[in-house]
Amino acid sequence: MSRYSLFLGLIIDRLHHYIRQIRAMKKNMEAVTKQSRVLEETKLGDSEEIQGYQKKIGSLNEQVQVLKQQSESQTQELKTAETNNLALRKQSEGLLTEYERLIAENEELRNKLQTMELRFSRSDSKKNT
Question: How would CATH label the architecture of 2-128?
Fold first, then answer.
């Protein structure tokens, strides 16, 4: 039971880590998008500056795409981890139910064995007398 708890704790920790990463990436993506928008809206007279900013915008747009892909990938990993967590939880519940059933069956068999031993010991004592 403690191994399962440790495993669930590990999964929850990883889920929390992924959620924090996704939030940070979304904030970064919003900042990059905002910066890109500001650069696009700003009109500069100097063509060299314009070209430099256009390169920066292109670079930032590429970064946005990379961040979007990373966000989608980690969102998918998070969904997979949640699904695995749920499956493991259900499996654990099933195993716990089976374990409890086996304990009850074991107790019942021990009681039957004890009863049979008492009967045999009584019959042996009657034969000896």
Answer: Orthogonal Bundle (1.10)
The residue with tokens 């495993």 is: 7
Where are the domains positioned within the chain? Answer: 2-128
DSSP string computed for 17-57: HHHHHHHHHHHHHHHHHHHHHHHHH---S-HHHHHHHHHHH
| pLDDT for the residue 40 | 73
- Greater pLDDT, 126 or 76: 76
CB proximity list for 82: less than 8 A, separation 6 or greater: 15
Greater model confidence, 18 or 38? 18
